[in-house]
Design goal:
two-stranded antiparallel sheet, Rossmann fold, 2 domains, globular, 9-stranded mixed sheet, alpha/beta
């Protein structure tokens, strides 16, 4: 290549890089050391961007989990921040998350990972411009249990979560989400570590994939009527064809809530992930933000028509006008709604 052409090419590349920004990493520490937060070149501190938090499995780590999921490869095209924290180390030398009775606090640690992750997300929000209605969590195995636990404890924070080979609490009373959450369960039928139909770890039972999904469907107000009409997916590159069945529970779900199951037929605990796995999961998470509460008439926009619709419902004493959820319909609801409307959602 002629030198002048080479220099011209470098100049174009440099100009594009300046225009598009550059990939960067921030580090956030809330008491356990630095947690990397990866930002795509499209990140603009003046524009809110979705955040995904990735949780590793038992005995793994953040870097190991990312080398398996490879979410960073899709940050440029899909536009999201990615935080990859580590759990603490137990008496057996393994990193873990203290999620449920079954998984995976085998050393009876008192560590509070639910609060730690909440503090981490709040710290990231203080450092970066996080889209408040688009905070998502994904975890594998023990990380999947922890994603379920976090959504139970902090449903007001997380919009959507995905669990690969994890499960929720065995006792439904241990999960009391304050509001709706979108959830996605991904599980292989040949998983012998966390069994598709449920099982026991050290004498503690965990629910199966269908039981987990239907528990969340019920919490989200969805009718427990499965719909298997969606086309299958290819999530495991070593299994023939589109081996993953998609089950949804689309009827009667409350705003901001849904439940979905991707069953990898003959899939193992650690599936051989296809090239489509990560973009499909990321797109699912990003496509399920929390609803805009100020869009009171549900027409997709927040404008004066929503104020009129709310005031009409409030004047009529309709239950939907209890905007602050305190069980009473009064002027506090008007103030709460107008504050949400003024902020855009």
């Amino acid at each position: 290549m002629p030198r002048t052409h080479h220099l011209f090419t470098l100049a174009l590349v440099a100009a594009f890089a300046i225009h598009a920004g550059a990939q960067s990493t921030k580090f956030v520490d809330v008491g356990r050391g630095d947690v990397p937060v990866y930002l795509p070149s499209t990140y603009d501190e003046n524009t809110p961007m979705p955040l995904i938090v990735m949780l590793h499995g038992y005995g793994a780590s953040g870097p190991i989990q990312e080398s398996y999921f490879r979410f960073r490869n899709h940050q440029e095209s899909l536009g999201f921040m990615l935080a990859i924290p580590n759990g603490t180390i137990d008496n057996f030398g393994n990193r873990f998350w203290n999620a449920t009775d079954a998984c995976c606090n085998f050393s009876n640690s008192s560590v509070d990972d639910s609060t730690y992750l909440l503090d981490l997300i709040n710290a990231i929000k203080a450092e970066c411009n996080v889209a408040p209605r688009s905070v998502s969590i994904i975890g594998h195995s023990n990380g999947g249990f922890m994603a379920n636990r976090f959504a139970c404890d902090h449903a007001d924070v997380v919009a959507s979560f995905a669990s690969l080979a994890g499960a929720t609490h065995n006792d439904p009373n241990d999960c009391n989400p304050a509001t709706t959450v979108h959830m996605l369960q991904i599980h292989g039928t040949a998983d012998t570590t966390i069994r598709y139909n449920g099982g026991f770890i050290n004498g503690n039972r965990y629910p199966g994939a269908i039981e987990t999904v239907e528990s969340w469907a019920a919490s989200n107000g969805c009718a427990l009527v499965p719909d298997d009409s969606s086309p299958p997916l290819d999530l495991d590159r070593t299994l023939p064809g589109d081996e993953t069945l998609v089950t949804t529970y689309p009827q009667d779900c409350d705003a901001g809530g849904s439940a979905e199951l991707w069953t990898i037929v003959d899939g193992a605990h650690v599936p051989n992930l296809s090239a489509s796995f990560s973009p499909l999961v990321i797109e699912w998470l990003l496509d399920h933000p929390k609803p805009c509460l100020a869009d009171f008439n549900n027409d997709g926009t927040s404008n004066t028509q929503d104020v009129i619709a709310f005031l009409n419902a409030w004047a009529a004493g309709e239950s939907v006008a209890d905007f602050n959820g305190d069980g009473e319909i009064n002027t506090q609801d008007v103030l709460a709604f107008l504050n949400a409307w003024a902020s855009g959602c």
